[in-house]
Amino acid sequence: MKEFLKRKNIEISLRRYGIDALGAMAQGLFCSLLIGTIINTIGTQFHIPFLMKTVATVAGVDYTVGGLATAMSGPAMAVAIGYALQCPPLVLFSMITVGFAANALGGAGGPLAVLFVAIIAAEFGKAVSKETKVDILVTPLVTIAVGVFLSWLIAPPLGKAAMWVGNIIMWATEQQPFLMGIIVSVVVGMALTLPISSAAICAALGLTGLAGGAAVAGCCAQMVGFAVISFKENKWGGLVSQGIGTSMLQMGNIIKNPRVWIAPTLASAITGPISTCIFRLQMNGAPVSSGMGTCGLVGQIGVYTGWVNDIANGTKAAITGFDWLGLVLISFVLPAVLSLVIHKGVMKLGWVKEGDLKL
Fold this sequence. Notes:
Radius of gyration: 21 Å
Strand content: under 5%
Order of helices and strands: HHHEEHHHHHHHHHHHHH
Shape: globular
């Protein structure tokens, strides 16, 4: 069995499924749901006719350009997962159907359902790939059959479970904004820096509202924090690559000296409750944006998109100056200032020395 799994490149491990597949799922979401949301927002805010009008009607449902991208989130996630699992072509292409089925039957918690179903279907497809003389029939048939059956069997309960957990977190944040602001901000922020996907976690749990705002705060604290405290070592290239790229670049240095993580993490513990208690910053755009921070400014675009949506559905009267002040302070100013101050204290204690943050 070990020889067979090795020959088929089936690696049952936390890294393959919990890091590679999860991270790829976030990229699939980014290239579909998130981009679609951004396109719709641009079209609406700048009154671009082509982006606002219906370009296709499928089964009685009208789609804009952004709507088409959003509708493909299930297939995009599944194909991304299949790519991360290094699926052969016939398996990879079959994942389109698997992703559509899992996302549709998973409901609001579709991303988590896609993650589980796509992984299992992909591994079954890889197991039978090129084992018969009619591979072009057998491999897609097995992959799609397993994927659709599992979508019917486990996608609905997985989706409900994900939304239940997400709703509990969001409810708890409303009830205890200070405590949950700290917890959500720190946990999601650390997940962003670790080689796992905070964006996929937020998407799977449907994390929006105050909890989504706290998640944005935590991710920004990590990215902006590491960017500014390591500026002396990494200059402008490091500032940009970490500040609007990813703080995951520091994982090697964190492993060497975990204390370099103190400043951004403490900063997130401070900005999280400031976000929830003072500015009441809510992220009501696509849930995946909650876990993106300043990466491509997706977190900030998500917050703005949420404001637009809230105004459209009548839950928010207008975007105020206080809203913008909160977004700028939470996303950029406070993470930079707090991280620098805390980092200087850590260096004075001798826990971190110059060069520890060099990329």
